[in-house]
Amino acid sequence: MGRRTAWVGTSWKMNKGPAEAVVAARALAELSIPPHVQPFVVPPFTSLKDVCSILRDKNILVGAQNMHWENEGAWTGEVSPPMVKECGAALVELGHSERRTYFGETDQTVNLKVLAALKYGLKPLVCIGDTQEEYAFNVTNEVLARQVKIALHGVKAHEFENILLAYEPVWAIGEKGRPAETDFVQNCHEQVRQTLIELAGEETAERIPVLYGGSVNLENAPHYAALPNVDGVFVGRAAWPVAGFKAIIESIAT
Ligand code: PGA
Q: From the CA of 210, how far away is ligand 1's center (Å)?
């Protein structure tokens, strides 16, 4: 069996407007990507089309940070799956904790969006994670199982292999976050894999990449990526500078 692909992605969140994003995308286009690594970058909507064009023939996938589930209509401020697709994006990030915490995203809306993404040929990158409170009360496994089951409800057998998951403990994300212990991450990913096996069967579940995210940096990235059932990392701050993203990619490849 060949080596598993290591996914390394970064969401720029609300950073890099059109001009800055173009500069970053041109620098990304120059990177040489090691074998067995699949990088992806998730710019804000205003930069999506430009970043997609610059990276079109490169081995770096581009995604949107969110989208609506309907294909058109009176939804002020929203962006539809066909719009994301038309920009040239390959994937779409759904259910990030910042969307759940500040913008009312729920497991049910994530599910609608997952089904819409699959319908339009976009790879859903579904973010799941326990809050500090859920972690403290030791219900992380139950929370993750629930989030995965609702997010993937109604996904057809042949569609499961288009799914990407990212486990991102809410308490590990951002300036105030603390990186999770590797033992803890390993256990969570094992539980997530079990849930995927329940939903999709063993063979298919094995093919669904499950990434880890939350205060990932150059030092800890290779440790997370080496864990069983961890198929790569989803990075924020440490990968916003292209040099940081490059260094993390290289740290995982070697
Ligand atoms: P961070 O963000 O690496 O800056 O903690 C991670 C994320 O939100 O995916």
A: 15
Tokens for 118? 């699959």
Closest residue by Cα to residue 206 from 167, 169, 165: 165
CA of 158 to the centre of ligand 1 (A): 31
The protein residue with its alpha carbon nearest to ligand 1, atom 1, reads 236
129 lines ligand 1 (CB under 6 A): no
Q: What is the pLDDT along the chain (254 residues), one digit of tens a residue?
A: 456 899 999 999 999 999 999 999 999 999 999 999 999 999 999 999 999 999 999 999 999 999 999 999 999 999 999 999 999 999 999 999 999 999 999 999 999 999 999 999 999 999 999 999 999 999 999 999 999 999 999 999 999 999 999 999 999 999 999 999 999 999 999 999 999 999 999 999 999 999 999 999 999 999 999 999 999 999 999 999 999 999 999 999 86
Rg (CA), the chain: 17
Cα 223 → chain centroid: 18
The answer to whether the CB of 21 falls within 8 A of the CB of 43 is yes
What does residue 94 show for φ and ψ, rounded to 5 degrees?
Answer: -135, 140
Inter-residue contact 117 to 156 (CB < 8 Å): no
Q: Work out whether strand 164-167 and strand 6-11 pair parallel, antiparallel, or are unpaired.
A: unpaired
